[in-house]
Known about the structure:
This protein is α+β, with helices and mostly antiparallel strands. It folds into two domains: 9-84, no CATH class; 97-165. Helix content is 19%, strand content 28%. The strands form two sheets. The chain has a four-stranded mixed β-sheet, with helices on one face. Strands 1-2 form a two-stranded antiparallel ribbon. β5 and β6 (160-165) form a beta hairpin. It starts with 8 loop residues before the first strand and ends in a 7-residue tail after the last strand.
Amino acid sequence: xxxVQIFCGLLTVTNEKGEIRVCxxxxxxxxxxxxxxxxxxxxxxxxxGHSQPSIFYTDNMADKAxxxxxxxxxxxxxxxxxxxxxxxxxxxxxxxxxxxxxxxVAIDDAIxxxxxxxxxxxxxxxxxxxxxxxxxxxxERGFITGRGQxxxxxxxxxxxxxxxxxxxxxSS
Length: 172
């Protein structure tokens, strides 16, 4: 508004079918920005007789307690990790390759290889995993005061994970 950015992100919650259940523009990544939206989602599921979420994916482990408070169903039938600490950690399968690309030509080539997996008539579907990362500015009191440009884009397709370094901040 008047040249000033109001929203820094879009919170989107989907169900297991990829259908959007919550979509909220947020001014910060603070939980208070989307607490009401999640409360309304929980109430709507209850009102119409749908089951509450049993699993939630997030890129921030700090969200765990907040999400469990928003959806107590996330705590049901959960076995603590400590119980199975003797098991081997999960690792990347040996047939999955990881490539880091940091030039526009290399990134274009990687995307082109994904697009080449589509049938020639264009009538196919491809599935990708997608994630982005950026730096955030935090005040001395722990509040997020801003965010940097997207620095990393990760795309997983078939047996390949691409890590695109799309922005590197100037060092001071």
